[in-house]
Amino acid sequence: MIFKDQAYTREDFSEIREFLVDREIYFRTPQDWDYTRCEMWIYTHVERKDNVDFFYQNCHIWRDETGKIVGLFISEKGKEEFSIIPAPEVKEIGEVILDWAINVWGAEKEKIYCDLFEYEKDLITLLTSRNFKKRDGIISHGWKYDLTKVEYEIQLEDGFKICSINEDHDLKERCEVVSDAYNNGDLTKFTLEEYEWRCSAPGYNSDFDLACISPEGIYVSCCTGWLDQHSKSAIIETVGTRHAFRRKGYAKKVVAECFNRLRTAGAKVGYIRSFNEIADKTYGSLKPSEEIHSYIYILRK
After folding, report:
1. Contact at 8 Å (CB) between 117 and 30?
2. Is the whole-model pTM more than 0.70?
3. DSSP state of 10
4. How far apart are CA 58 and CA 45, in angstroms?
5. Sorting pLDDT into bands at 50, 70 and 90, what band is 45?
6. Which H/E stretch holds residue 161?
7. Residues 6+ away with beta carbon under 8 Å from 164
8. In 3-state terms, the chain is what percent helix, strand and coil (to 5)?
9. Count of other CB atoms within 10 angstroms of residue 29
10. How confident is the model at residue 184 (pLDDT cuts 50, 70, 90)?
């Protein structure tokens, strides 16, 4: 098969998203790059909003003779990490993408590494055949939920409530809870401009932008749900809890309520990913139908 490759342009976004949705439908298991991660990558970092070169250099596309996307290369941060995202029915494309990753994108890098889920056996075999070494330890857990079989009961303390941003429209609190959760208590890091840029993502729906709110009006925990009606799948991203309210179950409650609302809106399967033991315990207690692990594979030149 003959492939044509190109750098990413903004005109490719919708087609890339559709390609990632089709992969989720094919595998029906957590993906390293799903349609939500792609939207978050484009629409989270406001400093990249007009930086066309960043995406041009760190996202590459392969198409077949008909012009259909059959493979993607993405480096989320543009540093040493990368992802290979092949069409599952086109077996030879993985090696083509890896060659480009090593010899073009990674030509002057001393090391490069890739995060793969354990079910991606063809890619694991390919990388290890090219001298990539598996790093010790699990890097993440992927969780799948059959939303047709689970509905969560949520009990809140007196005065607490869970609301969407439509129901309690405090944008200052919404930004501060993310800043506190992800920036060691610095309440200025996640700005209103960044939040509004994220909300402009095509798949964003404010009905699933939730926060658990204290009687004093403090947003103690938050998450955002993303729903794709074609695949009937839902993904929860950017779960965060203020430092002062951690280890009290608020993240579990806001995630559970988000899944409940996504289920009511038509989602049949839900996904979430965790990168630490506290999140592992939280998401593992929500009755997942599947848990899988991802690992890092490193090439040192």
Report:
1. yes
2. yes
3. G
4. 14
5. confident
6. strand 161-164
7. 206, 207, 208, 209, 210, 261
8. 35, 25, 35
9. 14
10. low
